[in-house]
Amino acid sequence: MNQAPIDQAVAWKRLMEHAQEMRGAHLSQLFIDQTRGAAFARRAAGLTLDLSKQRWSEATIEMLLDLAREAGVPEGIQALLSGEHVNVSEDRPALHTALRLPPEASLIVDGEDVVPGVHASLDRMATMVERLHARQWRGATGRPIHDVVNLGVGGSDLGPLMVTHALADYRPADAHHVEVHFASTMDGSQLADYLNRFNPETTLFVISSKSFTTIDTLSNARTARDWLMARLVNDGIQGVDENMVMRQHFVGVSAKPDKMSEWGIVDANQLLFWEWVGGRYSLWGAIGLPIALVIGMANFRKLLAGAHAMDEHFAQAPLADNLPVLLALAGIWNVNFLDIRAHSILPYDGRLEHFAAYLEQLEMESNGKSSTHDGRQVSYATCPVLWGQLGPNAQHAFYQLLHQGTQPVVCDFIAPLKRYDDVEDAATRDHLKAQHRLTLANCFAQSRLLMLGDDAIEESGERPGHKRYRGNQPSTTLLLDRLTPATLGSLIALYEHKVFVQAAIWGINPFDQWGVELGKQIAGETGEILAEHEGLEKMDASTRALIEAVWLAEQEGDR
Ligand code: F6P
Question: What band does 559 get if pLDDT is binned at 50, 70 and 90?
């Protein structure tokens, strides 16, 4: 990986000069070239990536590829996939790609082949899924489990939540009696609702936490445990004791078996994964249990196969045709050379409702950093602010800013080419297919308008300022052949690798997250002051006043 600051690289300096020329170019001029659409598109693993609406030329891409080479991207890819300790600050590999290697593969890491362990873990997960689907996993009173609640946050929530929602159509017939739910917020909002509605006899909690120390998850888990004990043991249901509740109603997923045991998760209900799987990269293994419960193990394996296909492409395709590399370079160009520091993710498919939230963690927790591997502060921008929403809904919310605001924003439009051809009823199928066409029309229209501005319409004559569209806003369009387990796997892997390539260029570590640690510590101290009513003098004037407001509210509550 590169050591010298990347903004000292020859290619960086050339790009800086080149950017001066390109800043004056409007996308509508670049599109005078009729071959541009095809020239800037690439395909791999069921995905088509159209980068023609980026504000760049073939020459820009050549220079960016030089930058990638100077930054050591090819060596970085090799180091990542072969299990080198690319997570430098924590001195370990980042081997999410090993979670999707086929069983016949082998990957020796630190002297050990990790593939057999990966598949043993998947098999253990498959056994749990089968038991739940076959109604053989029963609660303490003997009734089959109906509601499974995943208690987790961040990477132990967002990936499974996003994928289960995206692939709900793939639910096999035997999975229909198991409902999967997610509770992540430490304030208990989601959990309180479930506890009101669910039957404790038929509810199973999956405590998902790589570290098994995350207060958000553990506080939800404690509330869930007390609820079950109160309703199943203390209410005196005959023959039910605490051990049975722990055995029949709790599964743990973690890299910390000791902590799970200490909490009371029985050995048979522990699914383990490894320190070398980062939380936000973990949906491919045991953390994916809720996914497998919804889509079945066969489809879960297709999700892995799709991601693996993208891994193979990432490893083998030349840089100039490599989808993750090109997507990453488009980002580098926008952030570092065109000064576009906002990035919106806009799926045109309701099933991808949680995709933007998932990417917010993947990109910003990975690359929201300013210190390089050797501890130097960077003198260039890194991860942009990334947010998103379903495109059609966002059209009625924040597209106003995209089209006429003062912030330049780059957008990723994501849509499936085909949908609804398996709907049985012919009339409904026709309606839904028409809705899909309408959605695609909107997707393509928006990226075109962002690109061309007023030039997108033929109307002649000067338009008043409030009706003017400046255009020249870059975007990427990503088309999935269909939204399937395999293409979703490739899509997620595409973004994972994009993040890695950008980090390699910026010289930062995408696999740690030290920026979230201090907040946890200070929240602990603040919590003690709130509870103990001592130590207020250590706080600043604002926090003091806020804490006093809470105490006052508590006193009023008591009256
Ligand atoms: O606080 C950030 C973080 O560590 C994320 O990186 C992680 O995905 C999330 O918390 C949950 O962590 P865990 O799975 O250890 O509970």
Answer: low
> Which two structure tokens, joined as six digits, stand for 390?
């379903």
Q: Tell me the CA–centroid distance for residue 134 and ligand 1, in Å.
A: 32
For residue 375, pLDDT over 60 is answered with yes
| Cα 345 from chain centre | 12
- The answer to whether residue 520 is catalytic is yes
270-272 and 112-113 strand pairing: unpaired
Tens of pLDDT, residues 418-436: 999 999 999 999 999 999 9
* Statement: residue 16 has pLDDT above 70: yes
CA of 180 to the centre of ligand 1 (A): 21
Alpha carbon separation from 346 to 78, 354, 355, 423, 476 (Å, rounded): 31, 11, 9, 25, 10
The closest of 182, 197, 185 to 148, measured between CA atoms, is: 182
Ligand 1, atom 1, residue with closest C-alpha: 516
CB 125 within 8 A of CB 289: yes
DSSP string of 364-416?
IIHH---B-TTSPBPSS--SPEEEE--HHHHTTTTHHHHHHSSS--EEEEEEE
Read off the pLDDT band of 376 (50, 70, 90): very high
Q: Tell me the one-letter amino acid at 46.
A: G
Which residue has the least CA distance to atom 13 on ligand 1? 209
The residue whose CB lies within 8 Å of the most ligand 1 atoms, and thus the one to mutate among 157, 209, 214, 277, is: 214
Closest CA to 472 of 28, 21, 19, 41: 28
Q: Where residue 531 falls among pLDDT bands split at 50, 70, 90? A: very high
User: What lines the ligand 1 site, CB under 6 Å?
Assistant: 153-156, 209-211, 214, 217, 279-280, 365, 513, 516
Residue nearest (by alpha carbon) to ligand 1 atom 9: 154
The model's pTM: 0.97
